[in-house]
Amino acid sequence: MAKLNFPPINEQMDLIKRGVFEIIPEEELVRKLDKSLKENKPLNIKLGCDPSRPDLHIGHSVVLRKLAQFQSLGHQAILIIGDFTGMIGDPSGRNVTRPALSLEETQVNGQSYFEQASKIIDPQKTKIVYNSEWLSKMSFEDVIKLSSKYTVARMIERDDFTKRFKAGEPINIHEFLYPLAQAMDSVAIKSDVELGGTDQKFNLLVGRDIQREFGLEPQIILTMPLIIGTDGIEKMSKSYNNYIGISDPPNEIYGKTLSIPDSLIYNYYELATNIPNEKLKNIKLQLDNQSVNPRDLKRDLALLLTGMYYNPETAKKAQEEFDKIFIKKEIPDEIPEFRINDNISELGILDLIVKVNCAASKGEARRLVTQGGVTINGNKIEDIAAVINLNKESILKVGKRKFVKIIK
Is the dihedral of CA 54, 59, 63, 69 positive or negative? Predict the structure, then answer.
């Protein structure tokens, strides 16, 4: 085997520890890295992906970026598509059971996950496996034997199970099987390190225990913080509508990034970008300097994030477009057109907003109007009962960034 070019252990640890919440245990990771160097053998770095929600956002990118950093150090990234476990439904960090999917749905979503993740990780250096490869082959006897290796008392230690148990909410037996199934993934691929968010800590630790039961050296647990969404309150999630999607249009990524509170600027630079540690320290100093306007750092961040998921030229155009709309108060150069049926001469504003796909329902459209977020040709619409004349071309603006040219 050709000599691999691993950096020295201290250099590897400097990069590995960046933005990490917890390493369990750190001294074992150092020993594994030392062994990797001596044996000229990369470590197996495991990341399990949830195929129930295939649309990735910046929150997902935090752990994917850590996987990419391990790749850059010469280690083997293994992305496990949880097509089989997705049929169980993982309740981690939730107080209700996550809905289960069919095997076909999880596999389709898993492919979409990988395609989006490839914007962050190196797809050519990533091993992709579906856990149905081994889990679907387990007999009922195998499941009983696996279940015997863990106790109900240990399962109940999991925070969300504890809360539900005390609240008298149901916990189904199959939910206990999820962390055991995820642990079997670690056994199957002989994982050296498993990555996950802080909400996955319990499941990852079960993997260590089950690996021991199968005579394997236990994996190291590396947890990453859950990034706060653009609202500055809740963790980033599509459910809270506080997310920046990595497949969002460039203008959306740029604009949403500028909407984050100043308190999150450093956090986003640290967890969502690859800027060098020295530059990161400089950003910290600038944020502490009262003479520096945080808005300038935020504009740089928005430009950086947009460029990462597209390219620098596209990011620059997104910045120029944003300035044109929000600073110069001009209309964008390119606006999607919506052609109205010739038989329709007028529509109520709520029906119009829904018809041109700027809101999912009349209820949402009503909220947008009452909040002052709707204009026609620059004139704010304040009456939810307003009727719009469709016989002439109009520019409808909904919210901060949605423009539609209405034509007949």
Answer: positive
Q: Are 388 and 376 in contact (CB under 8 A)?
A: yes
Q: CA-to-CA distance for 20 and 170, rounded, in angstroms?
A: 34
In this structure, CATH architecture of domain 9-224:
3-Layer(aba) Sandwich (3.40)
Phi, then psi, of 325 in degrees rounded to 5:
-80, -45
Class at the top of the CATH hierarchy for domain 337-407: alpha beta
Q: How does DSSP assign 72-100, residue by residue?
A: HTT-EEEEEE-TTGGGT---TT-SSPPPP
Q: pLDDT tens digits, residue range 218-275? A: 999 999 999 999 999 999 988 788 999 999 999 999 999 999 999 999 999 999 998 9
Radius of gyration of the chain from its Cα atoms, rounded to whole angstroms? 25
Taking every pair of Cα atoms in the chain, the longest distance, rounded to a whole number of angstroms, is 77
Count of C-beta atoms within a 10 Å radius of residue 394: 18
Predicted structure pTM score: 0.77
If you classify domain 250-327 with CATH, what class do you get?
Answer: mainly alpha
Looking at the DSSP bridge assignments, the partners of residue 23 are: 222
